[in-house]
Amino acid sequence: KSKNPSSNVVLWEEKLSWSNPLISGENEHRMGEKPLQFVLNELIQTEKDYVKDLGIVVEGFMKRIEEKGVPDDMKGKDKIVFGNIHQIYDWHRDFFVGELEKCLDDHEHLPELFIKHERRLHMYVVYCQNKPKSEFIVAEYDTYFDGIQQDIQSRLSISDFLIKPIQRITKYQLLLKDFLKYSSKAGMDCEQIEKAVGLMSQVPKLCNDMMNLGRLQGFEVSFVGLHNDMCCTHYDMCGVL
């Protein structure tokens, strides 16, 4: 077995290349077409970067933890740290990034893609509800996770990576709003794009609500624990009296 703990870790180091489609002179008269292409290129490139980051979590951090094992008092908690990020990674890597690339040849496919898979994107809501519990465990075992970071030679911490799904689900609505703006300038039918923007504005709001709910649930657990401790202390004091 290799002595180098990072030797078995696949960190998605190969660069994913993409090319900018050339816009023909005949189409350049359509106002907004070049910015549209720019938005699409940014969406696709940032999606590839995002998949690469998720790969570091799954193939890097999670794999190394499985190899190394966790402290006895942390057993079971490691699953809470990552939530459903493996599911998110698989879907984006195996399906969504490829579908986004198809939009370079067919702009109308973009809003259809987000509308059709809006329910699938609700896996981010599940991720966000779990996030406060995840943050608590990472903070509790920060020394352990720092060691994992060093093992896989990652520049970023586990917390830096675990925030990325939340940043990504917010980024979609911003890019779609840009796409809507330039589609309107290009004289395109914007009905489906407006619908996609509406849907992708709701998902981050729901994610935020679920994170707040997760924090409240954590607070309630802490409060119950504190209440029980106070009751025990009161009982002990009464016993002394």
UniProtKB/TrEMBL annotation:
Q: Which GO terms describe its molecular function?
A: guanyl-nucleotide exchange factor activity
A Gene Ontology biological process term: axon guidance
Q: Give the UniProt keywords, A-Z.
A: Cytoplasm, Guanine-nucleotide releasing factor
Q: Which SMART domains does this one have?
A: RhoGEF
Where, subcellularly, is it found? Cytoplasm
| Pfam families xref list | RhoGEF
Annotated Gene Ontology cellular component terms: cytoplasm; extrinsic component of membrane; postsynaptic density
- This protein's superkingdom? Eukaryota
- Which segments constitute the DH domain? 35-210
Q: What is this protein called?
A: DH domain-containing protein
Q: Which organism is it from?
A: Maylandia zebra
